[in-house]
Amino acid sequence: MVRQLLAWAISSPFIVILLALTLVLGGGYAFTHVNxxxxxxxxxxxxxxxxxxxxxxxxxxxxxxxxxxxIALAGMPHxxxxxxxxxxxxxxLRNQFDYAKDFDQAKQEVINRLQLxxxxxxxxxxxxxxxxxxxxxxxxxxxxxxxxxxxxxxxxDLKSLQDYTLQREFLxxxxxxxxxxxxxxxxxxxxxxxxxxxxxxxxALVDLEKAISSGNGNGSGxxxxxGQTNLVVRSIGLYGLGEDPMQQVLSMRDPQxxxxxxxxxxxxxxxxxxxxxxxxxxxxPVRIDNLVDGGPMLNxxxxxxxxxxxxxxxxxxxxxxxxxxxxxxxxxxxxxxxxEISLADGERVWxxxxxxxxxxxxxxxxxxxxxxxxxSRPRSTN
Length: 382
Fold this sequence. Notes:
Elements: H1 2-11, H2 13-33, E1 46-52, H3 58-73, E2 79-87, E3 90-97, H4 103-114, E4 126-127, E5 135-141, H5 155-171, E6 176-182, E7 187-191, H6 195-201, H7 205-215, E8 219-226, E9 229-235, H8 245-249, H9 255-274, E10 277-281, E11 284-287, H10 308-311, E12 316-320, E13 327-332, E14 350-363, E15 380-381
Antiparallel strand pairs: 1-3, 1-4, 2-3, 5-14, 6-14, 7-12, 8-9, 10-11, 13-14, 13-15
């Protein structure tokens, strides 16, 4: 058999060369186009939809959000089933397609169907970027400490760094689908009005809300012609001039100088909020500074009467949104040589950190080729 095959190959060189070229071309095409994954995803296309309805009970979420979404998504081509979950203020739907449906096509089909759902005002469903094997990197942010062992930055600072700087940089990387952050606190400025002072000036909470909303914005003007130059006139009215102080501290080498700069910027914004005019009584402006707890802390020209440490803790304060949980981190303790420290009975010694900001980088489905897959995953508790 082998002798006959060799004799045929010698007598038919053109056919042999043609088959060899076909094999080379097919192998080259497969080498450059086949998606080789270190962790192949055997699951079919699974599209998860998440919708938030703040303040609504699980029953209200089921009736007003989950069921309309199920109706809108029903009947999609190649859809096998939809599993839903209704929680307090949250609806989660998991749509699984059969293997004949491409992931991108299924995702686009779900996006098109979401436009047909009749949902309450303010509820916007979103596509979750998570996939069964999409987690390629998990990291936490460390907080430097001063000489007394106290953290230099606040949880608000680290959360802002994660949400507005690191997440943006990761999303610029090709084939990254999303970054899911958890832990920390989301900063916000709170105004604590004094009911007696509001009553004294004949104002209501709605007047205070409108003043803050309209006072935090830029205003447009006309055009100013100077010679052959046409200048656009506008007024900068955003608190803090609309600048992110975190971008300024990224180039600072000393963490304590960076923390002091962040605290000074927070105090400056609080002073600007206090100077916002709410109404005019007897031709005299009534500012937020006159309506909050603790009374006025600014002079007529806007200069502070007290130091920043006192001002930022009364009336207008730097706080955070209501927390739904936190991230803690536990890992083995090591000595100077890098060896794990163990007790006499062989049990390892752990270093516990009660507050950490954690993020998970998610890879787009089917795009793991040429990306590093080896990641370190510390032992963490949520």
